[in-house]
């Protein structure tokens, strides 16, 4: 079965327009998998057919309908699938096409987006930018659950500061999601931790780095090595600054040392 994405803009919003398109698809034996509004005045459909010729005939006929304008007719991309599922497109940076922007109110969409990435096989390096308590780590964990993947923290400040220097048992599995905090890893003086990070980076698996801009400082990696950069904000105008983040990590180090000490294992 072949899947295709069809998006059109309504030129004349007359009664029965959607029914006419659905009837045409039915006559050509093309199934509608999902349909939703994806933008103001636009509808998107995921279509499925047994043969390419069915979709080709539909495209030829629908392009002659004067009350709509065909905007997209292609094999579905990840953004197309999520747009139909959630009713809107993910915001993408105009200059850097691998950077995607979300606000906290869109956590459901973000989790869905990352889960689709996590379902892919092989090496993928994902960076997440965002201020404290915006939901970065929680979103990664939720996306791992949605993708039915096990997640492993190599460095983190989610509960207490954690710095791993070895993996155990099935943690070496390439089906796992490896998560690290770029600030914690950059500041770690544990050479075994740094060696573990280098080994993890060479594994054909999914890696998620919080604060990627800090991670690449004083390291052999650069921001161009990332396949996806995700920016998560409390609101669209929020500025992501690293002075606050580094200060929070420093204070966290002091508090944990004074009270119970961080995990290092």
TrEMBL record:
SUPFAM superfamilies: ACT-like (SSF55021). It holds the Pfam family DUF3388. Residues 70-256 form the DUF3388 domain. InterPro entries: ACT-like_dom_sf, DUF3388, UCP021288_ACT. It comes from the Bacteria. Transmembrane segments: none annotated. This is YmfK family protein.
């Amino acid at each position: 079965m072949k899947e295709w994405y069809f998006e059109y803009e309504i030129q004349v919003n007359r009664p029965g327009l959607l029914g006419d398109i659905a009837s045409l698809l039915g006559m050509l034996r093309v199934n509608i998998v999902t349909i939703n509004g994806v933008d103001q005045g636009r509808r998107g459909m995921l279509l499925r057919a047994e043969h390419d010729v069915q979709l080709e005939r539909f495209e030829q006929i629908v392009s002659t309908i004067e009350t709509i304008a065909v905007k997209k007719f292609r094999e579905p991309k990840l953004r197309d699938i999520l747009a139909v599922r959630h009713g809107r497109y993910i915001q993408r940076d105009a200059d850097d096409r691998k950077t995607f922007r979300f606000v906290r109110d869109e956590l459901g969409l973000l989790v869905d987006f990352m889960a689709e990435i996590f379902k892919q096989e092989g090496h993928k390096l994902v960076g997440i930018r965002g201020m404290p308590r915006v939901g970065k780590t929680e979103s990664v964990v939720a996306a791992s659950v949605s993708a039915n993947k096990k997640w492993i923290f190599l460095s983190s400040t989610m509960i207490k500061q954690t710095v791993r220097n070895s993996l155990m048992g099935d943690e070496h599995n390439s089906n796992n999601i490896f998560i690290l905090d770029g600030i914690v890893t950059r500041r770690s003086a544990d050479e075994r931790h740094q060696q573990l990070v280098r080994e993890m980076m060479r594994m054909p698996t999914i890696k998620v780095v919080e604060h990627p801009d800090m991670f690449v400082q004083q390291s052999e990696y650069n921001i161009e090595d990332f396949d996806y950069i995700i920016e998560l904000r409390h609101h669209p105008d929020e500025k992501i600054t690293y002075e606050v983040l580094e200060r929070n990590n420093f204070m966290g180090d002091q508090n944990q040392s004074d009270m119970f000490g961080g995990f290092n294992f």
